[in-house]
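USER:
Before I trust my own judgement here, I would like a peer's view. Write it directly below this note and I will take it from there.

ASSISTANT:
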Amino acid sequence: METLYERDLFAWAMRNAAFLREGRLGEIDRMNIAEELESMGRSERRALGSRLAILMMHLLKWRYQPERRGRSWRATIREQQRQVAWLLDDNPSLRPELQGLIANTYIDAVLMAVAETNLDEGIFPVSCPFVWEQLMSEDEKQWD
């Protein structure tokens, strides 16, 4: 038998929210609420990793194709920096995970840079060449 959670996530969420507000804790779907909350946390972590990968990809392009630098790349770098900052402002508990996220998403940044530039993957460093301060710097000289 299919549950409301499986049939209609929105209806399930509204029902459980009402139960919580009314103090009807015995009627809430604890297990699925816990799973959804954990999923929300993972989603925020993935969003941060994705933004970091895009930021690093554009910084790699900036560094390894200086002749192609332009306003578009600069704007994308600054936009990703803002998005990373906003995600961290909203989720400060992700700060201790930054080094791991940077290391783990760097390969994604390299693969995206290779796909967009047709440069050989071997020209990029094996591990992330950027420290946090470079990633978030507004000073373009720090990106080189």
Summary: The first helix runs from residue 4 to 7. The chain has a mean pLDDT of 96. The CA atoms of residues 94 and 133 lie 17 Å apart. The helical segments are 4-7, 9-21, 30-64, 71-90, 98-117, 132-136.
